[in-house]
């Protein structure tokens, strides 16, 4: 049974209380987990309603998974925030990871990234300033060259999939990798693009003024 | 299918925000709670947390999670004792 969300009040314990109870014997730990569970069951539905109604069983599963992670990662809590805020970050990540998985489950990474290897378009057809149009084309050619010749296949996939909206965790799931590893692929790709553009004489201000 | 103009602009924006010492999504999660609480009271972000700000400017998934977190923390009883 999901509690009424109208009063998602933080349980009144200190950080030290939480840590002590969660590390204590079965009775104290069980009571602390129940308090966190009740808090998350109240707090999550309202914040997640923008993604559509969340089935009760899914919400229960998300909260259960989040609490297991909290117990597993308890030593990583450094006391720099309220304990409940830290717990909430974990629960939100678990919830959105599951919602993203469901939203993207039927989307093929191959189809999403197909054709991107030669995919730089002409700059704005509506652009009437010939100098600006020429500058845009020069930048796009450099980007095209880097995308084609300097990025690895996985780096290119990571960049294109993200631009087309697929979450990194879903890219990772399809590549047999992790969200952090996909972020690293994208980071490495962005670094190559940045250094390539800078080596060709383009800086951030110029590019902003050319495309802005 | 070619990348659209909006994709190119998004990519260029991310490219020029790129730093060598970026944190990944795991690093962002580890400090997101502290970052959110500081933001909510309107205090200055300490230097050590600036990389969270940089990461959020680039990572749509962490930004989405951060916004949901802010909604929850705002609606909870933030006057409760720590």
Walkthrough of the structure:
- The complex is a heterodimer of chains A (212) and B (82).
- Chain A contains ten helices and no strands.
- Chain A has helices at residues 15-22, 26-48, 56-72, 83-104, 109-113, 130-149, 153-163, 168-175, 179-199, 204-211.
- The mean pLDDT of chain A is 89.
- Chain B is mainly alpha-helical and 82 residues long.
- Chain B has a domain at 21-75.
- In chain B, 39% of the residues are buried.
- Classes of the chains: A mainly alpha (212), B mainly alpha (82).
- Chains A and B meet through helix 2, helix 4, helix 6, helix 7 and helix 9 of A and helix 1, helix 2 and helix 4 of B.
The number of distinct β-strands of chain B equals 0
Ranges of chain B with pLDDT <50 over ≥5 residues? 78-82
Task: Give the C-alpha Rg of chain A.
Answer: 23 Å
The value of Rg of chain B in angstroms is 15 Å
User: Quick one: biggest sheet of chain A?
Assistant: none
Share of residues in strands of chain B? under 5%
Mean pLDDT of chain B: 89
* Whole-number total of structural domains of chain A: 2
Order of helices and strands of chain B: HHHH
Give the helix level of chain A as a range of percent: 55-70%
Poorly predicted segments of chain A: none
Q: Name the helix and strand elements of chain A from N-terminus to C-terminus, one letter apiece.
A: HHHHHHHHHH
What is the count of β-strands of chain A? 0
- Most extensive chain contact? A-B, 63 and 45 residues
Task: Please tally the helical runs of chain A, counting DSSP H or I stretches of 4 or more residues.
Answer: 10
The pLDDT mean of chain A sits at: 89
Helix percentage range of chain B: 55-70%
User: Beta-sheet strand percentage of chain A?
Assistant: under 5%
